[in-house]
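Our preliminary data section would be incomplete without showing what the modeling component actually yields. Below, a chain of 142 amino acids is followed by its predicted structure, encoded as tokens that our downstream tools consume directly.
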Amino acid sequence: MKLKTCLISMGLSLSALLTPLTMVHAAEVTVTVKDIKRLQGHLLVSLFADKASYDSNKPAAVSRIKVANTEEVITFADLKDGEYAVKLIHDDNDNNRLDTNMLGIPKEGYGFSNNGGAFGPSPYEEAKFSVKDNTAISITLL
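Predicted structure:
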């Protein structure tokens, strides 16, 4: 009888310990990219978890998707709640970089979270957004 009580007690204790692990929350960020002009190449989308990684261009997550529509959706999963920012380019010639003209003006589509960057790269403070639970943002290509 003591063994049975001990085993039941251990089972309940183990259950109590494991319950918080099953309740761990992971957020998703869904990025809808709009106004894709050329249905060729790939979207290169980078998600940054803080200002330092954004400024040094070291993303926490990257996605590369083939362009097939004038609007595409990218999802980043298993994220902690917090502040994030997105940079993206439409690499329509698939050379894995943003092509520019002689003056440095982009020849391919690009964008930032919160749709900044019309007159140069959007600073982190303008591009950041809060993630709590699942979050959806929209970026219109420039």
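The CA atoms of residues 67 and 134 lie 24 Å apart. The chain has one domain: 27-140. Preliminary results of this kind motivate Aim 1 of the renewal.
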